[in-house]
């Protein structure tokens, strides 16, 4: 019997097997092994990581089955992703003895933060159809998008709501808050003093414990090469319900997904261990008490080690452990409040969703006849002024490239692209 009182099915592959029986209470007399002839091949593993965590955007997914009473018919594999049949060229089924593996290789990168629902089916040697379903979600590596905005866990506000401007300039490389103190109940909240991990930030009372973290990479290109490395990194530890940190940042306006890098020391499973809650502070972040508005929730499994960081997407529900990442509108001077209720917390990344890069000049050329040709990208409206302070005038009908005579505008001329 299983822990839930139901019949347990297992496979004995040898002539001699040793069983260990433990009893919680009551007398124990004997057990009976009943041979079954109706057990189809069983799903024993999914790679990577049994899909407990988010996966890379280019990850191949492999399902492993073991034959029981019947065997896996390898010519009958059928896979659907988000309701659409996957072409056979992207699905490879191989068999070695009693073990069958099915590997799906994506034709293109997965969309960041989108849940991919799968339905994998096959027939066994008895002609019965076996179907398995589930989902995975891809994080922002590799092929990380442009204009991501990073918030390092150790770089919370200091001296009652103060923040360093360089922490809002991307790519941020870390260590801007070295040796800065913070005000309890204003910049952070902890109800106890933990002498462990008294590094990087100094003078807080109670101490905010943290650890050195070797995870320095914040973005990669499509080939997996690092494109954004920190110079130093720390993670917050000794978490607990109600413990939070404030982060004031100047965020470019747009729609974002938010991802948190978290870790927990227990063995990975379907149980929730990593818990974080994100809010925005709607009152003055330099005083207490503060009012907040919920923004989203991070819920993930244990990662197999403290510092074994995994990227957890923010979702709209505090009970959701699967499904797509929620998208939120952000912009301007914003104070985030992150409650690291359970697990170590390394950083959170704001990943832009459908943001259009701002217009920019790509070429300004003086021609032989005294005219000027201007090229720019990103659309927008070309404007001219005779002083950098304006007034600015639209160049009606101008599209890139545009050629004009600067003498028309006077001795000095300034240009800009209005989005």
Largest sheet: spatial strand order = 15-18-17-16-19
Number of E-type strands: 26
Poorly predicted runs are none
Write down the domain tally: 3
Can you summarize this structure?
The chain is mostly beta strands. The protein is built from no helices and 26 strands. A five-stranded antiparallel β-barrel has the order 15-18-17-16-19. Strands 1-2-6-5 form a four-stranded antiparallel beta sheet, with no helix packed on it.
How would you characterize this protein structure?
By secondary structure, the protein is an all-beta fold. It has three domains: 42-137, Immunoglobulin-like (Sandwich), CATH 2.60.40; 149-352, Jelly Rolls; 360-418, no CATH class. The chain is 0% helix and 39% strand. The protein has no helices and 26 strands. Strands 15-18-17-16-19 form a five-stranded antiparallel β-barrel. Strands 1-2-6-5 form a four-stranded antiparallel sheet, with no helix packed on it. It has a four-stranded antiparallel sheet with strand order 4-3-7-8, with no helix packed on it. The N and C termini lie far apart (67 Å). The model has no long low-confidence stretch (mean pLDDT 91).
SSE layout:
Layout: E1 42-47, E2 61-66, E3 78-81, E4 84-85, E5 91-96, E6 99-104, E7 115-123, E8 129-137, E9 149-152, E10 188-189, E11 210-212, E12 217-220, E13 226-229, E14 234-236, E15 244-263, E16 274-281, E17 292-300, E18 310-315, E19 328-342, E20 344-352, E21 360-366, E22 372-377, E23 381-385, E24 393-394, E25 402-404, E26 414-418
Antiparallel strand pairs: 1-2, 2-6, 3-4, 3-7, 5-6, 7-8, 9-20, 10-15, 11-14, 12-13, 15-18, 15-19, 15-20, 16-17, 16-19, 17-18, 21-22, 22-25, 23-24, 23-26
């Amino acid at each position: 019997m299983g822990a839930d009182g139901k019949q347990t099915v297992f496979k004995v592959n040898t002539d001699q097997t040793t069983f260990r029986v433990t009893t919680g209470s009551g007398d124990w007399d004997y057990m009976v092994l009943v041979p079954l002839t109706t057990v189809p091949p069983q799903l024993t593993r999914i790679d990577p990581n049994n899909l407990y965590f988010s996966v890379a955007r280019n990850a191949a997914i492999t399902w492993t089955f073991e034959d029981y009473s019947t065997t896996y018919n390898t010519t009958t594999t059928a896979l659907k992703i988000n309701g659409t049949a996957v072409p056979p060229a992207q699905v490879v089924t191989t068999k070695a003895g009693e073990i069958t593996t099915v590997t799906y290789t994506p034709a293109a990168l997965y969309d960041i933060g989108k849940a991919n629902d799968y339905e994998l089916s096959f027939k066994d040697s008895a002609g019965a159809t076996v179907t398995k379903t589930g989902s995975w979600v891809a994080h922002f590596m590799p092929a990380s998008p442009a204009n991501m905005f990073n918030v390092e866990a150790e770089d919370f506000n200091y001296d009652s709501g103060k923040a360093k401007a360089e922490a809002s300039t991307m790519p941020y490389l870390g260590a801007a808050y070295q040796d800065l103190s913070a005000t309890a109940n204003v910049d952070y909240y902890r109800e106890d003093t933990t002498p462990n991990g008294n590094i990087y930030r100094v003078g807080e009372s109670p101490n905010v414990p943290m650890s050195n973290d070797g995870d320095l990479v914040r973005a990669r290109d499509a080939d997996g090469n690092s494109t954004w490395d920190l110079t130093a990194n720390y993670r917050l530890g000794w978490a607990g319900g109600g413990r939070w940190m404030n982060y004031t940042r100047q965020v470019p306006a747009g729609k974002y997904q938010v991802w948190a890098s978290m870790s927990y020391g227990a063995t990975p499973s379907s149980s929730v261990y990593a818990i974080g809650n994100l809010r925005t502070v709607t009152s003055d972040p330099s005083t207490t008490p503060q009012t907040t508005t919920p923004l989203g929730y991070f819920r993930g499994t244990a990662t197999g080690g403290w510092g074994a960081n995994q990227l957890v997407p923010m979702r709209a529900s505090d009970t959701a452990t699967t499904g797509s990442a929620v998208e939120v509108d952000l912009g301007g001077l914003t104070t985030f409040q992150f409650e690291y209720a359970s697990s170590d917390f390394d950083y959170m990344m704001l990943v832009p969703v459908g943001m259009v890069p701002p217009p920019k000049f790509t070429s300004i050329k003086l021609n032989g006849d005294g005219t000027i040709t201007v090229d720019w990208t990103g659309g927008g409206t070309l404007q001219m002024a005779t002083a950098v302070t304006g007034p600015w005038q639209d160049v009606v009908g101008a599209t890139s490239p545009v050629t004009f005579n600067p003498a028309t505008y006077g001795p000095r001329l300034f240009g800009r692209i209005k989005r």
